[in-house]
Each structure stands twice: as C-alpha cells, then as structure tokens.
Design a protein that fits this description.
The complex is a heterodimer of chains A (242) and B (319).
Chain A lengths: L1 H44 L6 H4 L6 E7 L6 H9 L6 E8 L5 H8 L2 E4 L12 E7 L7 E6 L4 H11 L4 E4 L10 H11 L20 E3 L2 E4 L6 H14 L1
Parallel strand pairs in A: 1-2, 1-6, 2-5
Antiparallel strand pairs in A: 3-4, 4-5, 7-8
Chain B lengths: L1 H9 L9 H9 L3 H53 L6 H7 L2 H5 L1 H17 L2 H13 L2 H8 L5 H13 L6 H5 L7 H14 L17 H12 L18 H13 L6 H7 L5 H13 L6 H7 L5 H12 L1
Helix pairs in contact in B: 3-6, 6-7, 8-9, 9-11, 11-12, 13-15, 14-15, 15-17
Classes of the chains: A alpha/beta (242), B mainly alpha (319).
C-alpha cells in the first residue's frame, strides 16, 4: 500500500508538472499568435469599408435562423431587432420549437401572420413542422415563422435550414443582438473565397450584453460589469468560447 | 516608517537563520521534478510580469500619443478653418500658419497629414481642392511617395490612399506597379487609387489584371464606379475576351448593372461558353437588361443545362 501511495504521489507530481507546463505553454503560444493576428486584422480592417457590400451585385443572400422556445415575453421585440439588421438581401426564419407559452400567438398578432402553403425540401431530418407562417404586411416579407413539434435547439435549426431559401444561413439565438455591421463582416470571407479556397463557415465574436448600452436593438456602447463577480463571469464566458 | 527603520537597525544580519547558500542547498534537497516545478513557476511568473509591463507600457504610450494628437488637433483646427475659407492660397501663407517644429517632427507631421486626409474625406468641391493645395504646399506629396517605397504593405497602402485622395496624378505609374501584388489589400488599394487618378479610362488596369478578382474586389470596384460621372463608365464588352476569367465575369455583371444594352449580342455569344459561372452571369445580366431577344437562345439551351442554370433561365423568362 505504501509503495503504491509512493508511486501514485510521484506520478501525480509529474502529471501536474507536465499538465501545467503544457497548459501555460499553450495559452502563451495562443496569446502570442492572437496578438500578431489581431494587429494584422486591425491593419487590414483600416482599409476596409464594409458598407461596400451593401451595393455589391454579388453580395450573397443570407437566411437568419433563430429558434425560439418559451420566449413570449421578449419575442416581439427580438424579432423586430432581427428584422432591422443592416444588410442587403436576407430573410429571418423564427422557428417556434413547440413553445408551451404563447410565443407563436404573440408573433401572429404582432406581425399579422397567417399560415401559408410553403414548398420546401426536407434535406435534414427534424421533428414534424406544423405550419409555416408569413406576414400579410408586404414590408414584413422577409419574415418567416416555422411552427414545429418540440425537438430541441439543434432540431429547430435543422427545420429552419430545410425551410431556408438562401445558400448561406446564420444560426443565432432569438434573444441575441447582432452588431450593426456583423453580417457584413461575416459575409466578407464568403465573398473572398476562390474555387480552391472555399469558405464553409464563419464565426463571430460573442459578448455578454448585460452591462452594455442597448438603444433600439443596437449596442451603442460596450461596457464591462461594475461588480467583480459578474466581471469574472464575463471573462469565464468569453474564455469558454475560445 | 520610523518603527520600520528602528527594526532594520536592530537587525543583525549575521544572526539570520538561513544564508543564501543554505537556501540554495535546501532547494537542491528537493527531488528533481520539484526543482523543475519551482523553476517553471518562477519562469512563468517572470513572463507574466514582463507581459504586464509590456501591456501597461503600451497603454501609457498610446494614451500619451492620443493626448498629443488631440492637442495638435485643437491647435490646428482654427488654422484649417481659416485656410479653407481663404480666397487665395500661396505656399508662404500656408507655411506661416504651421509651426516649423511641427512640420519637422515625424509624429506631428503625420498627425497633420492625417487631419488633412480626414477633412478631405468629408468635403467635396472647392474645399477639397483647397485641402489638396495645402497638402501640396506642405510637401506631403513627398511623404506619401516615400511610403510607396516601404517594405510594409500597410504603409504602401496608406501612401497610395493619400495620393489617390489628394489627386496626385504623378503617382499613377508608381502605384500601378502594385497591381499584381501578392497582398490582396494592396491589390485592392492599387485598383481604387488607379481608378481615382485616371482621367480617361478608370478601368484600364483590367487589361493588366492577372490575379484573382474576388466578389469582394468586384464590390469595391463597382462601388467606386457608382461614384463616377456617367461619361467615365467604360464599355465593359472590351474585356469580354480577357484571358482572366474573373475579369470576364466582372464585366458581364457590370454590363447588366450599367444597362449597356448594346452589348446584348456579345452576351448571347457567351451563352455558349462551356464555363458554367460565365453562363450563369450572362443569364443574370440578360435579365437585368430585360433582353427579350435572349429568350429564344435560352429556350434552346434549356433542356441540356443543369438545375442551377435552368432555374436562372426560368427566372429570366418569368421577368
């Protein structure tokens, strides 16, 4: 038993040493690479005007897919925020993932929705779709609401992908606030792709909006929380993403 | 403080329990891996301290620089206001308004140049011309031309941008050497600069274009074209035989966008192209041109085409 304990502690000591070295080394390497990349990104960005995409004949169309489950309190505002996104050609698909509250009813009333016959190909399997809704108001033609049986977020996204009309889709949470130029920035790599270097996906920077200043669905100022524990939470959240 | 001094004075350093040697010996009494651990911990802590010092130093440096910039901005704001609204400008008058030391110090000189560029971006017409005169009188042209000689791409790109904004025609030849650069931002800035500086043919560079022209590049060029007077828009069919396929695709798109209906016949010839991308672009352009004479050839090729092309043909027929 004593010998086992000796070898065990010896192994644990070495393991912790190696683990710490690898962890620190990896973080250090990542930070160094990121620092150079950020500098390069900022330099490149200083010559780019993303608004050029808005007038571009070749700007790709995007389907924004947002699953919603029991979001009745905020759904109307959140959908409005998504519809106000600064981009040329896009559609917003809200997937009501079998909400138990009146999420769907709220949207029907707020956006004058009605069930429509909608042809789509079921490329990816998902729980049955009860109906596809479109607004009777012409100015809301970009909005499509899909009502389906509950199946979780991934299932709701699959249903949204099946219904989407465009080649590129953006998957977000319905309560997310997209930054003013975010779609323009995300579309740029797709516009830069060549036949040999294809772009299949693009990610964005995720931040917590809790302490930020939000005005009419747009973030006007990015702030850190003032309290220490929420600050640590923000840091932990950001770290978890990268 | 007094108490601390008294304690230190009363200390007999010879009586200390451990000498440096003893500490060293006690470290060596640890097993090897613990010693490595202590070493690594000290190393990591040192790295963290150095990083913190670098971050702090950089922040202090940046804040100082930004304050200095703000000071210069405040100092020369009224000067620019006066110069812009002066009836006539001459070199001596302009030079007398600026401190010699500011024009000789690299940082201050760059800040003044950036201010002129910034103002020019926000003004047009006579005011913009006045700013161009100030730029010339202060000999910033030399600074911008010097940037083109730099080895760093972002400095070259900045120089190009300055020359293009300030309409320095003499920079055209020098700038055109970067047209086929390996750096895509530099290529893009070159194209934009050449378009701005050209008097007659803003797209002359398309004939020399050998590199890939992405959708993003096309968007930038198109955006520049939309800001130009109509008489400057060239006949895009001139480049439909270009060996660069991207140039051909771009020109087809532009024929549709700028409604160059006289090119419909040439487009119909390209409909027979084996290149699917070109074919799709032609169909889209024909739709934008509302070319009814394109319907028959489209119906002819329809049965043999793939789904994407068929879909575009149907869209054309529907419109």
């Amino acid at each position: 038993m004593g010998l086992f304990f000796y070898y065990f502690t010896n192994f644990a000591d070495h393991f912790i040493l190696v683990y710490s070295c690898i962890l620190f080394g990896t973080y250090f390497l990542l930070s160094t690479v990121s620092a150079f990349d950020i500098i390069n990104y900022m330099r490149r960005n200083s010559f780019i005007d993303y608004r050029d995409i808005l007038a571009a004949p070749s700007a790709p169309s995007i389907s924004i897919i947002a699953p919603a489950y029991n979001e009745s309190k905020t759904i109307v505002e959140n959908v409005r925020s998504l519809l106000n996104i600064h981009y040329v050609n896009f559609e917003v698909i809200i997937v009501n993932d079998g909400s138990k509250d009146d999420t769907l009813q709220q949207m029907i009333e707020a956006y004058s929705l009605e069930i429509v016959p909608y042809a789509f190909e079921e490329k990816i399997g998902s729980k049955p779709i009860r109906g596809v809704y479109k607004s009777t108001t012409p100015s809301l033609s970009k909005l499509t609401v899909v009502d389906k049986v509950n199946g979780g977020k991934a299932d709701a996204l699959n249903a949204g992908i099946n219904v989407s009309r465009y080649g590129i889709f953006a998957a977000i949470d319905v309560d997310c606030i997209l930054e003013y130029e975010s779609l323009l920035k995300m579309v740029k790599p797709f516009m830069e792709q060549t036949e040999s270097d294809r772009v299949i996906a693009v990610g964005g920077v995720v931040r917590i909006a809790n302490s930020c200043e939000v005005n009419e669905g747009k973030i006007t100022k990015v702030n850190l929380p003032t309290e220490m524990i929420p600050r640590i939470q923000v840091l932990e959240y950001i770290r978890a993403f990268y | 403080m007094k108490l601390l001094a008294n304690i230190l004075l009363q200390l007999n350093f010879n009586d200390l329990q451990y000498s440096v040697d003893e500490v060293g010996r006690s470290i060596y009494s640890f097993p090897v891996h613990i010693r490595i651990l202590i070493g690594v911990t000290i190393l990591f802590m040192l790295i963290i301290l150095i990083l913190l010092a670098v971050i702090m130093g950089s922040r202090i440096f940046k804040t100082k620089r930004s304050n200095k910039k703000a000071e210069l901005h405040k100092k020369y704001q009224p000067v620019f206001r006066n110069l812009i609204f002066e009836e006539a400008l001459d070199r001596d008058k302009v030079l007398s308004m600026f401190d010699r030391i500011d024009l000789d110090t690299p940082f201050n000189r760059t800040t003044i140049l950036d201010e002129i560029i910034h103002l020019h971006e926000n003004f047009t017409g006579e005011t913009a011309e006045r700013l161009e005169e100030i730029y010339t009188f202060l000999e910033f042209e030399k600074d911008s031309m010097l940037k083109l000689k730099s080895k760093r791409w972002y400095i070259i790109a900045k120089g190009m941008k300055e020359l293009a904004i300030m309409n320095v025609k003499s920079g055209y030849t020098e700038i055109s050497t970067f047209l086929n650069s390996k750096n895509e931002i530099l290529r893009m800035e070159t194209r934009i600069a050449l378009m701005k500086l050209s008097d007659t043919d803003p797209l002359a560079f398309l004939s020399k274009e050998t590199e890939h022209l992405s959708d993003w590049d096309s968007a930038n060029i198109y955006n520049m074209l939309t800001k130009m007077p109509e008489k400057m828009i060239p006949d895009f069919s001139n480049w439909l035989n270009s060996p660069n396929r991207d140039v051909v695709v771009f020109c087809i798109q532009m024929i549709g966008r700028f409604r160059q209906r006289e090119s419909i016949k040439t487009l119909l010839v390209l409909l027979k192209s084996p290149d699917l991308r070109i074919k799709l672009c032609v169909i889209k352009a024909l739709r934008e041109l509302s070319a009814t004479d394109g319907e028959e050839p489209l119906l002819e090729i329809y049965p043999l085409e793939n789904l994407a092309t068929k879909s575009e043909i149907l869209k054309h027929l529907k419109s």
